[in-house]
Amino acid sequence: MPPGYEFVYWLYKGSFGPSASVKSTKDVERGIQTLLQELQALDFPRSELRLYFAAAQKLPPRFAEIGVERTAQAMNRAMEGSPTEDPEALEAGQALLSELWSWKRRGGGLSDNTLAVHEAALLELQNQQPEETAERVSSILLDNMPGMTDADKLQLGRGLEQVAFAGVQGFLWNAIGLTVLAVVLLNFLLLNR
Q1: Chain segment 158-188, per-residue pLDDT in tens
Q2: ∠ at Cα 53 (142, 150), nearest 5°?
Q3: Which UniProt keywords apply (predicted)?
Q4: Is 38 a member of any domain?
Q5: Same domain, 92 and 170
Q6: Where in the sequence is the domain holding 73, given as residue range(s)?
Q7: pTM for the whole thing?
Q8: What is the C-alpha to C-alpha distance for residues 142 and 105, in angstroms, rounded to an integer?
Q9: Residue 3 has pLDDT above 50, yes or no
């Protein structure tokens, strides 16, 4: 096998190949960690993955009998690094991660920048409409902070907006002041020659 194709072979073998009952938990967890790293590199952070698993309503057809809630619980434990002894739910979660990985590799979520990544994935993969939130705060700093509610993010976002506005305004006034000072000094030096 040529170098660099191990992940593609693993993805093909693990997701689309025939499944001989349930794979060992270690193999599935290793595959999940690999997919999590790949999705992180494709700008799909774990906080967005948790939101996706919490809102997902359907699994791939071969895992329909497992249940979405059971899969979401197993995936949350796997993302935290906690051991889980539910290989069927982990395998269903791995299939969902494979779908997300394929979707992101095809450019999923790039057409609409107003939606969060998990909302775009839910819209395109699960056919769910995103929640209408007029006061949604979305930023690199706030989206990856654990344990913050949308109200907390909104309040902190407004504070950060005011700090940024004051910083830009201060920079501009300093630039104007320094320009005036430089012109006055230049005129004074040129007139006293």
Answers
A1: 888 889 999 999 999 999 999 999 999 999 9
A2: 30
A3: Membrane, Transmembrane, Transmembrane helix
A4: yes
A5: no
A6: 6-132
A7: 0.56
A8: 25
A9: yes
